[in-house]
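Review this:
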Amino acid sequence: MIYEFRTYDLKPGSQAEVEKRFGEAYETRKKFSELFAFWHTEIGSLNQIIHVWGYKDMEERHRIRSEAVKSGGWPPKISEFLVAQRSDIFMPAPFFTPASPGKIGPYFEMRTYTYQAGALPNVLENWEKALPGRSKFGKPCFVGHSELGGLNKWLHIWPYASIDERNATRDKARDAGIWPPSVLAAKEGRNVIPYVAQENKIVMPAKFSPIQ
């Protein structure tokens, strides 16, 4: 599976109308394939929406998108509100299965780390070792790396019931000495390649998002 993360920057004050129009158009679009998730930013880079679509491969992505456009009901009529658009293709880590639809939030922390070229094997190894321990305190809904778009990106998305729960959960994982993955890797004598940049934002789901 591949996951396309489409991030749109919006004109201030337009989010409610954009989500309304998107939700109406989605009634047609979901006949071809359903969203993985739809979020808007709450903390971090504001006035953004992120809609995520899962596909078997790039060929299926192209076919489904073409069929949806031919239907006449897609894309949603929101161009007047768009400031910028970005599309990135991510692949789930081989040891991780993305979340299924359901209520697991409603606060989602999206953390994106940028690594130097060639670091991915090291990142995969250390995360595969550390994630089982971290998941005892709360499981992510997505973990994976970029394939197209911004390269050398590592994305992990964590659901929480509240910001307070987020803070408490992270403290518990750190206090247990098993998180972040670099801590466990150092304890077990594995190499750690540091990231070169980090981005963090809190996002919340639209009413029509399969993941809530």
